[in-house]
UniProtKB/TrEMBL annotation:
Gene3D superfamilies: 3.40.50.360. Residues 4-143 form the Flavodoxin-like domain. It comes from Companilactobacillus keshanensis. InterPro entries: Flavodoxin, Flavodoxin/NO_synth, Flavoprotein-like_sf. This is Flavodoxin domain-containing protein. Keywords: Electron transport, Flavoprotein, FMN, Transport.
Length: 147
């Protein structure tokens, strides 16, 4: 059975809800999923997983959320050793640098020798049905990469 790390950070609940939805979707398809908040997660353990999915909002003029900074900095010292990964997140088009934390995580996980298996997905505020279709498509790409 494939083991997937699903790490998220969420201030007002949107990304927590997305991560919960993704967990159910992946488990229905037979994956084993460890769901953790990034503030509690150990980036050095990521290579133990078959795949890593990161779900993040964006804060303060395009920044990574404060509580995810330690995880992000540790990622720079981790060799992901071609671990499959995907990144997504809800942020808001009403701010500048829409979803830029998604871009930062995508770049860093590529730099840390991860294997990106789906285009990153940015969601504007609350996900609608089309957004959930994109979220599930990302999950399908992750699962397909593990076949
Ligand atoms: C103070 C503040 C700053 C924000 N800055 C940005 C930003 O720079 N870029 C962006 O795309 N969204 C920004 N957002 C929007 C959040 O990323 C968005 O509301 C997101 O859906 C929150 O996710 P959550 O419910 O999981 O916490 C900001 C929100 C707040 C409250």
């Amino acid at each position: 059975m494939s083991k997937i790390f699903l790490g998220y950070t969420s201030m007002s609940g949107r990304n927590e809800k997305i991560a919960g939805n993704l967990k159910s979707y992946l488990e229905e398809k037979g994956a084993e999923v460890d769901l953790e908040q990034l503030v509690d997660a150990d980036a050095f353990r990521l290579p133990e997983y078959d795949a890593v999915i990161t779900v993040t909002y964006t804060y303060n003029d395009g920044d990574i959320p404060d509580e995810a900074q330690d995880f992000f900095e540790d990622l720079q010292d981790v060799d992901l050793a071609k671990t499959k990964f995907a990144v997504l997140g809800s942020s808001s088009k009403s701010h500048i640098h829409f979803g830029r934390a998604v871009d930062y995580f995508t770049m860093e996980m590529n730099s840390s020798n991860g294997d990106q298996v789906a285009d990153s997905v940015k969601i504007n505020e609350d996900p609608d049905d089309d957004d959930y279709a994109r979220i599930h498509q990302l999950a399908d790409y992750v699962l397909k990469s593990l076949d």
